[in-house]
Amino acid sequence: MASRAVCRVESAVIRWCLPAVACAVVAMNTGPSIAGGAPLLRDVIDVGGRPYLRTVIRPLLSAAGDDDRSVYVRDGVCAYIAFAGHAPVQDDALLLRHFGPDMQPLHDDALVAVDPPNVYSAARGSGGTYVVWMPTAGYWQVMLSGIDVTGSPIIDPPATVAVMPEGFQAGYTSVAVGESGTFVAFGIRNVEGNTRQELHGRWLALNGGFLTPQFPVSTLAPHMSEGVYDSHVLGSGNALVLGSQGTRTWDSMRAWVKLLSPTGSVIRTVDLDSLPSEGGAILQRSGGLSVVYMRITSGYQRVATILRKLDFELNTVGPDVELPLQTGFWTSAPDGRIALAGVPNGALDIRVRLFDADGNAVSDWIDPAGPALAPPRKSQWGLTTQGVAYDADGTVWVAFESTEGGIRSYLSQLRPLPPGDLDGDGRLTNFDIDPFVLALTNREAYQAAFPHIPPEAIDILGDMNGDGVLTNFDIDPFVEALVNGP
């Protein structure tokens, strides 16, 4: 390296001197800095050989016994949605709150609806979060609301839309919300004395207006049944729907995925397996999508979880991958990295595991709550709940409940820390100079100043030259990363 930085410790002042640059004097701050007030837990853990900042908070101000919680994330902003008892309404309500990357709440609880909802879909768009749910008034209707990141309504009052005629059932339906001002809803109708089923869809605008008539997606032969497990609106305006169909015995069920145009026509149908199977989840991936589905037995026992990578025309990309056999929530980052939240065999409560875009595990099971709460902890396992979200920067958000002190909901963030981030705030900035020097010169004092960072993480965070330990040889690359970026 052509230039060297000189570090001098003078009393409680750190003085960094770069060649041809005036010395930067930074007052030493040895007290712990906790963003977002006083979280229940804030520590650093090892995830696949990389340090992650783990933070646990209570996400809602006003809810008691909130339930069916979900998280959706984009560009660092997480939307937390809960179905909750909310005084003084004294009835179930849908509450939403946005959090920034540092887990600071961006607004107070936003009341979305007071009609007991069954949340079917949500999307974190650039301007806010849109939520679609099925009201109790009728299974063929949906209600639509939107909340921006300040907590103000985008759609006020929520729109009530009769998507399908009467006679459509609630089970095995799906709604997908896009970011281009549209959403698509699917419903199944029993016909001919309940001996046959039809799957229909409809495109709508986010204000509830119809963009297409009701259109058929598939019509089954007598004594066949069908289920829709997930759907997704693509950036092209097409929609992807994942489901399964067969006779009303599990050994005949086969998983499929369909590509639909913005006018409702079926562009292509792909059968995912020749063995008994059912749909699971649609995951985003760079250059295409991935689908997760399950192989099953005639007794409806799940025997394998399969990852199939597809391009946007539903052509298979590479070989299938068998994932851990696990019931839970599958989600993905925009580049295809996958997060699974579930309760593995032998565990008392929820765990999270990370995979790369090819389905290879890159971590063991991670406890999102740590010592903050006593078991049992879990998330609500419902078709309408998305308990984990994976952002583009690798941050994982997990919504779960605990029965400790009554049923309460919690929000956990697992945030990767960059090398040199010795204050553990998720960013490499000038505020890391003090803790870097302190860790380099006096580890005891560093551990006292930053108790949420375990001793074994110090070398991982401070190692800038790749030799595995924090030494004086890390000073130059640390300054280089500060000046020019990591």
Extended strand count: 32
Output the number of helix runs: 4
* Corresponding CATH architecture of the largest domain: 7 Propeller
The largest sheet is: 6 strands, antiparallel
In CATH, the topology of the largest domain is named Methylamine Dehydrogenase, Chain H
**Structural class of the secondary structure composition?**
mainly beta
Range of strand content: over 45%
State the CATH superfamily name of the largest domain: YVTN repeat-like/Quinoprotein amine dehydrogenase
User: What's the CATH first level of the largest domain?
Assistant: Mainly Beta
Q: In angstroms, what separates the terminal alpha carbons?
A: 15 Å
Shape: globular
Tally of individual domains: 2
Rg result:
25 Å
Low-confidence stretches: 1-37
Q: What percent of the residues sit in helical stretches (DSSP H or I)?
A: under 10%
Oligomer: single chain
**pLDDT average, as an integer?**
78
